[in-house]
């Protein structure tokens, strides 16, 4: 016959051990949250053909603007306006103007948008959807 090797009884833990574990969890959470970490979501929108989005940026804070062509086969045409002339896309083009994005291409602009209202317009010939993300902390 087989005999039982392990007991199914729960192990006895003292209340002191439970208190210590709870204390360590609370302490770890307090230390992690006390570091001034701020979590925030960026404004993200999908734009179909001939749709546009506008966003008023914060003055004096660096913003991040990302534009992605979600199509796997078609070129997206976007028009970007409202940014100061010093803002450039990662491809070293000026932010303001007409831009063609290859399938799956993403462009990113980072800088102080100086409280300006940014406009992104999808003027693609085909039914291409672009994804626009704008994050301005503060």
Question: What's this, in brief?
Answer:
With 138 residues, the protein is mostly beta strands. 14% of the residues lie in helices and 35% in strands. The mean pLDDT is 82.
- Widest beta sheet: strand line-up: 1-8-3-6
Termini Cα gap: 72 Å
| Rg from alpha-carbon coordinates | 26 Å
Helical percent range?
A: 10-25%
Q: What does the largest sheet look like?
A: 4 strands, antiparallel
Helix-strand pattern: HEEEEEEEE
Low-pLDDT stretches are none
Content of β-strand: 25-35%
Give the overall pLDDT as a whole number. Answer: 82
Number of helices: 1
Structural class of the helix and strand makeup? mainly beta
Give the overall shape, derived from the CA principal axes.
Answer: elongated
Count of beta strands = 8
Name its key features.
4-stranded antiparallel beta sheet; elongated; 138 residues
Give structural notes:
This protein is mostly beta strands. It is 14% helix and 35% strand. It is built from one helix and eight strands, in the order H-E-E-E-E-E-E-E-E. The protein has one helix spanning 15-33, and strands spanning 43-47, 52-56, 62-69, 76-81, 97-101, 106-112, 117-122, 130-135. The strands form two sheets. The chain has a four-stranded antiparallel β-sheet, with no helix packed on it. The longest helix has 19 residues, at 15-33. It is elongated. The N and C termini lie far apart (72 Å). The model has no long low-confidence stretch (mean pLDDT 82).
């Amino acid at each position: 016959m087989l005999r039982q090797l392990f007991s199914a009884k729960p192990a006895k833990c003292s209340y002191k051990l439970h208190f210590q574990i709870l204390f360590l969890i609370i302490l770890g959470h307090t230390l992690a949250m006390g570091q001034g970490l701020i979590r925030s979501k960026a404004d993200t929108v999908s734009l179909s053909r001939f749709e546009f989005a506008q966003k008023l940026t914060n003055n004096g804070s660096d913003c991040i603007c990302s534009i992605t062509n979600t199509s796997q086969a078609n070129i997206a045409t976007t028009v970007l306006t409202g940014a100061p002339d010093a803002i450039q896309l990662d491809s070293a083009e000026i932010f303001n103007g007409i831009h063609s994005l290859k399938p799956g291409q993403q462009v990113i602009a980072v800088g102080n948008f100086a409280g300006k209202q940014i406009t992104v317009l999808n003027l693609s010939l085909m039914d291409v959807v672009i994804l626009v993300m704008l994050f301005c902390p503060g």
